[in-house]
Amino acid sequence: MAIKNVVYNFGRLNVMAIFEDKSAFLLASLRSGRTLPSGKHHFGFFEINEIDVEGEEYIHGYLVKFRPTTSEEVAVPKTQQLELEEIENRTVAKSSFFLHIHSGLIAYTTTNAHIDSDVFRRLFAKLIELANDNFFVSAEVNSVEERQQIFEAIKQLSRVKKVFLFLHPSNPGDSPIWRGYDERLKRLEASGYSEYYKAKEGSSGFNIVEDKEVVSKITMADDGYGEAKIEGEREGGETIYLSTKDSPIKAVVPKDESSLEDILKKLIRTFRRISTRIKNDEESQR
């Protein structure tokens, strides 16, 4: 029998807020009990627990989609009748997540029909804001990408026509490749920053990979602090659209893992690979 696997996507939770203890802030937000209506359903956080694995602090929980009230047909053996019974807060779908408190890195599952990656990232952030009454709190979950894939894809283009960059301050982050831009955003107390480049008509386009500044900003977006979009052409004139959100980092865990700690021990390799990437940036810039 083939072993079923569960795929975890990796992202980064970025929170702009004032707090003294990040762990306490995140736990309070995730345990607020607030739910977000969406059509006939609600979304909320459930079964929030702290987990310590190999000296690292994580939070595990579920983003749950549920229906406050619904009627389902039930069989009543005594009367041999079929009746409608009202059921409250029936779970429709749930996504498991592990949040690394210090870095904000998050690994999460999706369900194709109900909670895809975009829905998870959008609603996770909205629930954090809602838990704090949207008062001086801004949250966002960005996917973390396989860095080299975006640059390899760019190299396959014969011409780059447009580049759009959106960045926001890290929380935390310390890659020397983009540290200067990050520090500037923080000095300005900016919540976001965008740039747009458009090539002249008839020109050969941009040589992105040779521009250190643009590369640095794409890398920052790739590391989960924004997004970069590129429009270009391949030989023959075919228009190609690229984004730093096209190749998210994923990890596969056997579905029959017996405990949350066992699952996290499998995922921790990928958490550390992403962290090591930042450390390698540091060494390469010395």
Structure description:
The chain has 286 residues and is α+β, with helices and mostly antiparallel strands. It folds into 2 domains: 5-143 and 249-281, no CATH class; 147-243, no CATH class. The chain contains 6 helices and 12 strands. The strands form 2 sheets. Strands 1, 2, 3, 4, 5, 6, 7 and 12 form an 8-stranded antiparallel sheet that branches. A 4-stranded antiparallel sheet has the order 9-8-10-11, covered by helices on one side. Helix 1 packs across helix 2. The longest helix is centred in the C-terminal third of the chain and has 25 residues, at 260-284. The protein starts with a strand and ends with a helix. The model has no long low-confidence stretch (mean pLDDT 86).
Largest sheet: 8 strands, antiparallel
Q: How large is the count of helical segments?
A: 6
Mean of pLDDT: 86
First-to-last CA distance:
51 Å
Overall helicity: 25-40%
Per the principal axes of the C-alpha atoms, what is the gross shape? globular
Q: How many β-strands, per DSSP?
A: 12
Strand content: 35-45%
**Class based on secondary structure composition and strand pairing:** alpha+beta
Spell the H/E element sequence. EHEEEEEHEHEHEHEEEH
Radius of gyration: 22 Å
Uncertain parts: none
Domains, number? 2
> What oligomeric state do these chains adopt?
single chain
